[in-house]
Structure formats: structure tokens, C-alpha cells
Amino acid sequence: MVNDKLKQVCTCRELQEARFLIRHIRFKNQPVSAIIFAFEGIAYAYVNQCMHMRRPLNCEQDAIFDQTGKYLRCSMHGFIFDPKTGECQSPVCFGQRLQSLRLEEIDDILYFAEKHLALID
Ligand code: FES
Fold this sequence. Notes:
The protein folds into 2 domains: 1-49 and 100-121, N-terminal domain of TfIIb, CATH 2.20.25.680; 50-98. The strands form 3 sheets. It has a 4-stranded antiparallel beta sheet, with no helix packed on it. The chain is built from 1 helix and 9 strands, in the order βαββββββββ. The two termini are 24 Å apart. It has 121 residues and is mainly β. It has one helix at 12-17; strands spanning 7-11, 21-27, 30-39, 42-47, 72-73, 80-81, 103-106, 109-112, 117-119. Bound molecules: FE2/S2 (inorganic) cluster. FE2/S2 (inorganic) cluster (FES) binds at residues 50, 52-53, 55, 74, 76-79. FE2/S2 (inorganic) cluster is lined by residues 50, 52-53, 55, 74, 76-79.
């Protein structure tokens, strides 16, 4: 039974096949985008807004990871983030975190499990 507070993101297969997905959402009354990706077999989602100047991580390139694939990377000025925690690893914003978004998986479908989140089509 799917709780009506859950908002469908994608199937698990879609996420496995994509490098990352973008969903346009309203979170805490702000229109933003969300990045969703799998890292070491686990799905993560964050508000797509760098700590540095609030730009989307993919604003300059169609990518959210650095060349090693170990860190999220903002394409604006290259700040990097731990994909598991969203914590910034670059000196200016060290320790600040991307806003994480809870995901829930039910029957191979991923849902946002955040109260103050709505999907924007
Ligand atoms: S806006 Fe992301 S590194 Fe500057």
C-alpha cells in the first residue's frame, strides 16, 4: 500500500540506467530541482543547489560527479561533495551539506518521502 504522502520519482531500473535524474520539485515552498542518483548501489536524493552560490550542480555541464566518480561536483566552480552525506569537501564551504531528500523504495519504485515536497511537472 503506497502512502499518499509519497511522490513517485522513478523506477529502480530507470535510476540504474541513468547517471543521474533531475526532478523539478517544490520543497519548503521553493521551486528547486532535485538530483537523484545511485552510489555504491544505494539511491540518494538532494536539492540540486550548491552551498557556494546556490547554483545547480549541473549548471555548466551535464554531470554531477567528478572524474573519479567518488564525489559529487558542482560544475560552476568545482566544489565537491560526499555523495553519501552531501557534505562539502571544499575549503570555502567545508562541512556544509547539500539538503538531502528522503527516498523510500516500494516494489522497485522510488518515492520522495518528504512532507514538504511536491512534484512540479
Ligand atoms: S556555485 Fe557551486 S562551486 Fe560555486
